[in-house]
Each structure stands twice: as C-alpha cells, then as structure tokens.
Predict the 3D structure of the following.
Amino acid sequence: MLLKAHAKINLLLDVLSKRDDGYHELIGIMHTVDIFDTVGIMPSLRKDIIVECNELLPKNNTAYRAASAYLNAAGIDEGVDITIEKHIPSQAGMGGASADAAAVLCGLQSSYRALDDAKLYEIGKSVGADVPFCLHGGCAVVGGIGEKLETLPQQNLYLLLVQGSAGISTPHLFSTYDNVAARKETKANIESAITACKTFNGNLLCENLYNALEFSAFELLPELKITKQRLLDTGAINALMTGSGSVVYGVYGSLKDALRAKAQMQVYGYGFLEVTTTQNKGIRFI
Ligand code: C5P
C-alpha cells in the first residue's frame, strides 16, 4: 500500500518548561500542509524490517522504529518492507521524519488492525514528539511534548516555504534555547491564536504567529532572519520559522500573491522554495 505522509508547520510554538528527561513542555498550534513524502508499506514473511529511501537515512530511522514498535506491541512475528520517497526537506521543522513514522503506523494498522488508537498514539509518541500530531493531522492545539492534541478547524492558508542550504538540528536548537535568558519573555498569545482559528480570522491568526525558538535559531543561523525579512518584503501578511527550523514561511492573502512572492524569492537561489496550502487533513492512502 502507498500513503501520503504530510508535513506540518507550526502556527504557534511556545516553550513552557524543561522536564527532567531533557524534553521541553510545549504549547502550540500545528497545521498539516500539502507537501508530502510517499511511503510504501509491504508486510513480508521475512522477519526483518527493511527501509529504502531516496535519501540517506540512519539505520535506526523513525520509520524503522515505528514498524518495530508496532510489530512488537502487536505480537506480530513478521517483517515489513518500507519505501520512502522524500519530498519534505529535512532539518526543516516540518516533521518529515515524524510524518513517515506516522504513515508506517497507519499502514500497519490498516493491515493488521491489532492495536487500539490510544496504543497507536502511545507508540507514536515513543518514536518522536511530532508523531502523534502527524497521526492526527489537520489543525490542532498541541501540548505536553507533542502528545496532547485538541482539534481545531482546518484553516485556509496560502504559504510560501523557504529553506536555505543549512538545516538545524532540533536537540542543538533546544540546548541553545536553554542558554538564552530572553526566552522567558514570551510574546505568545495562545488564546488569541485559538480564537482566530475557531473564527477563521486570518488576520488575527497572522498577528499571533509566534515561535519561541526563533530567537535562538537566528543566533545559530543569521540567514534565517534575513529570509524572514525578505518574505515580509514580498508582501507576506506575516512570516515565521516553523518548529525548530530551518524552514521559514510567509502567509499570503491569496494563492496568486504567494506565487508572485515565490517568483521574487527565486533570485536568491534558495534550495527549497515552495508554495503550499493547508487543505489536506493528514495521512492519505493513494
Ligand atoms: O522526539 P524527537 O525525536 O522529535 O525530538 C528530538 C529532540 O528534540 C529531543 O531529543 C529533544 O532534545 C528535543 N525536543 C525537546 N522537547 C520537545 C521535542 C523535542 O526538547 N517537546
């Protein structure tokens, strides 16, 4: 079977505290975007899990770990062949590795129907903090380290996503963040952002786009701040880094505006430059 594993962006991300296990308690709003990896899943009688991808992946990658955790939890003594065709940029803050893991869990679940939803989400969380959201899809308030989800209505946004040559490692950014005193002065207004989503008030939502990790990311990779300003200069209503970066996106009033901005941004030679919308609800079987 073939699945579309959709990427996400953060419309808001605030860090509440650091836990004893090193993870950070977050509150935020995530939205699925149209960009996706294609994940093929073929249960096999061989007992091993094989992951093939058009990009180099670590042996213990998220798709492998998701399959292994599912088969163990379900007590299934079989293997699986997984193929991943990557389109979601990596080290981007778009949840690419989590989306792949979520698609693997979804695919195995549709084959075996061996676990209930609560167990599926629990396995997802153990594989990566963004996997529960990727299983959920659409638009949601995300809390905890990423596992507490509250559904919000699907928004209708026109986005231009940009990534330069460098990615950002999530653990590295969080540890940089821990050393920056300015982090305590949060400007997030989650209530206002939630109201904006519930009332489909795009302007109010754009006013409330916020990412507490941006400041530290700009220190690590100053080009991000320049990219954000360039997006604003092309007429974006607002612009924000997603997740732990390094993708920065602009929100536009129409598809036409987003496409025009893309043409303007092309002169800078960015490695990844894509217009997308928020019309997909998450994982889809092809
Ligand atoms: O769970 P995931 O593999 O996506 O997280 C990668 C790393 O990002 C974690 O090891 C941790 O350092 C950091 N992280 C965090 N708090 C979160 C999510 C991720 O500190 N809520």
Observations:
- The pocket of cytidine-5'-monophosphate is lined by residues 22-24, 26, 128-130, 145-146, 170-171, 174 (CB under 6 Å).
- The chain has a mean pLDDT of 96.
- The radius of gyration is 18 Å.
- Residues 132 and 147 are 6 Å apart (CA to CA).
